[in-house]
Design goal:
Layout lengths: L5 H17 L2 H11 L12 H7 L3 H9 L14 H7 L3 H8 L13 H7 L4 H9 L13 H8 L2 H9 L14 H7 L5 H8 L17 H7 L3 H9 L14 H7 L3 H9 L14 H5 L7 H12 L16 H5 L9 H8 L14 H7 L3 H9 L14 H8 L5 H19 L7 H5 L8 H24 L1 E3 L2 E2 H6 L2 H8 L2 H8 L3 H4 L4 H23 L11 H8 L4 H11 L1
Antiparallel strand pairs: 1-2
Helix pairs in contact: 1-2, 2-4, 3-4, 3-5, 4-6, 5-6, 9-10, 9-13, 10-14, 15-16, 16-18, 18-20, 21-22, 21-23, 22-24, 24-26, 28-31, 31-33
Length: about 575
């Protein structure tokens, strides 16, 4: 191609510069691709590459770079195109320039705002900046680059930062309400997420979510398994206690992140660790229970792998109280709570007021809760520290103004009749209150009592007829003490027969009491096994173990436990 005259080059260069400034991208690119860049040396101001960067024209930048534009050219202010792109945090353009074969001479471009911007998307920029000596945990607006990379889900940048010893447990500044942001954008794209994060959130709702976050806790909130894997592979203990006093598993459960919970459990998270308030993992599960299929899987998994269904926290309450207190037993019965009851959770556990679950359900007028608790053996005779029965909570503190509340009274009195018919203990309150708590005529009340007594008699006869062993019926399971049952439960054949029957299905009236008795028998059974392990029977050298255990049958529960503890 014939060389151009200076005037021609000047005019052509002027038009290209003007096209770039005017946004005529296609025209400028066409001239550059046709004539090259040699004539632009006549210009002493910004080169086309400078202008393309300033105007954020990534397409022209790429074209200019492909045609050999000088990435180290200085404009009238001594700035290279890379300096301009870095100052404006134009990460995609910075990345284009850094990928050129020519060495970058300028060092002005390396800055912390760019590091934070690049942390959301560009590992090339981050790597180059860290190689320039920038501090990996430099804070900007209360966040480290690793916070931003984790939040945006940029795995490559996360790996790069962690390999450069970024602090996985660095705590964010709560002014940005990062915890709220993470919850809000969990389902959004990375771009939307960072757009939200870069705006200070001043809406009233955010004030409820001012928890400080670490990259680790953010990854849990956003359920990012790949990032969690990176953290674990770089030395993070899966059972580490985080800045908030919780383990990753506890934090995931608390925030209702089912997939994250299952992921952590499969990777060996310890379900037996308590938080600083003495809460077990199930204490976190039940108050947040939404009965979703995923959360039910979590609860089942926890129970199957040994989570203590009766663990008490510093308030002396068991996990199942969380469902009662959150009123999940009101309109819908908590399925997770039922799982705990099926697993043998103590349905008669009490809180610091001496109130059992049935007290709470009655006080709230929760009909479905009362039905569920009675089904699993709730004791209507338990009194609180105020000397109140569960039914008295309902009668004293509320007005029987709904069908549900009247139905609760009926259910509890029905249970009272069942206990009376089986010669089981019944508080004297029930004998004097039956007629006063029903707004029924005498005939309706009589019919109710007769019908209830008939059902009880029929089931008692069935219990007496159904044998487990030659001298043991299901009626025996209803009437015997817990340490007597403990002796029977040690017999594998008896245990097998008991476990082969759905007791609640076969004996709908007394089955729950039998199950409660069998659960209660587990404690003395464990004590007896512990006694045998420690060979305490040696203190009775002249008496066989069988006779010793027979003697134990005649001790009440307190005496039995005191004896075993003393011997142990």
């Amino acid at each position: 191609m014939a060389s151009k005259k200076p005037s021609e080059c000047s005019n052509l260069g002027y038009h290209v510069i003007w096209d770039i400034r005017s946004g005529k991208i296609d025209e400028a690119r066409a001239v550059i691709e046709k004539h090259g860049l040699q004539y632009f040396e006549l210009w002493s101001q910004d080169t086309p590459l400078h202008l393309a960067v300033l105007n954020k024209y990534k397409g022209i930048v790429k074209t200019l770079l492909d045609r050999g534009a000088d990435i180290n050219a200085l404009n009238s202010e001594g700035m290279t195109p890379l300096d301009l792109a870095a100052n404006s945090q134009l990460c995609s353009i910075v990345e284009l320039i850094l990928c050129q074969k020519n060495e970058v001479i300028s060092s002005k471009w390396a800055n912390y705002p760019l590091l934070h911007s690049a942390a959301t998307s560009s590992v090339i920029i981050v790597q180059n900046l860290l190689d320039k000596g920038l501090e990996v945990d430099f804070l900007k607006d209360g966040l480290t680059p690793l916070h931003r990379a984790t939040f945006s889900g940029c795995l490559a940048v996360v790996k790069c930062l962690v390999e450069h010893q970024a602090n996985i447990n660095a705590v964010s500044n709560s002014n940005y309400h990062l915890g709220f942001a993470a919850r809000y954008v969990a389902q959004l794209s990375a771009k939307q997420a960072m757009s939200y994060l870069d705006r200070k959130n001043t809406s009233p709702i955010s004030s409820a979510y001012q928890d400080k976050e670490t990259p680790l806790s953010l990854a849990l909130l956003l359920s990012n398994e790949k990032i969690i894997n990176v953290f674990l592979s770089h030395g993070v203990d899966i059972n580490t206690v985080m800045h908030n006093g919780l383990t990753p598993l506890q934090y995931a459960v608390k925030n209702d992140k089912e997939s994250m919970v299952l992921f952590l459990l499969k990777h060996g998270a310890d379900i037996k660790i308590l938080d600083k308030s003495g809460r077990s993992i199930l204490h976190f599960t039940l108050p947040l229970d939404n009965s979703s299929r995923e959360m039910l899987k979590v609860v089942e998994f926890l129970i199957k792998h040994g989570a203590n269904v009766d663990a008490v926290n510093k308030d002396d309450v068991t996990p199942i109280f969380g469902s009662i207190n959150r009123n999940y037993f009101g309109k819908t019965v908590s399925k997770s709570a039922v799982l705990l009851l099926k697993a043998g959770a103590n349905v008669n556990a009490k809180n610091r007021k001496g109130e059992a679950l049935l007290h709470c359900a009655c006080e709230n007028g929760n009909l479905r809760g009362v039905k569920t608790l009675l089904k699993y053996g709730a004791d209507i005779n338990l009194r609180s520290f105020r000397n109140m029965l569960p039914i008295e909570n309902l009668l004293t503190l509320t007005v029987l103004d709904t069908i549900e509340k009247l139905e609760i009274v009926k259910l509890i009195h029905q249970r009272a009749i069942f206990l009376q018919m089986a010669d089981l203990y019944l508080d004297k309150f029930y004998s004097r209150s039956t007629t006063t708590n029903f707004n029924w005529s005498g005939r309706h009340l009589d019919n109710f009592i007769v019908s209830t007594e008939k059902k009880a008699c029929e089931e008692i006869n069935d219990l007496k007829k159904k044998y487990i062993a030659c001298n043991l019926t299901f009626y025996s399971l209803l009437m015997k003490s817990s340490h007597e049952l403990a002796i029977y439960k040690r017999n594998p054949a008896i245990n097998k027969i008991i476990q082969s029957i759905d007791i609640l299905e076969v004996f709908p009236i007394y089955g729950s009491i039998i199950l409660r008795n069998l659960v209660a028998a587990s404690a003395p059974m464990k004590m007896i096994e512990e006694a045998k392990k420690r060979d305490i029977y040696r203190v009775f050298p002249q008496i066989s173990i069988e006779i010793i255990e027979h003697i134990f049958k005649f001790l009440n529960n307190d005496d039995f436990f005191n004896l075993i503890r003393a011997l142990i």
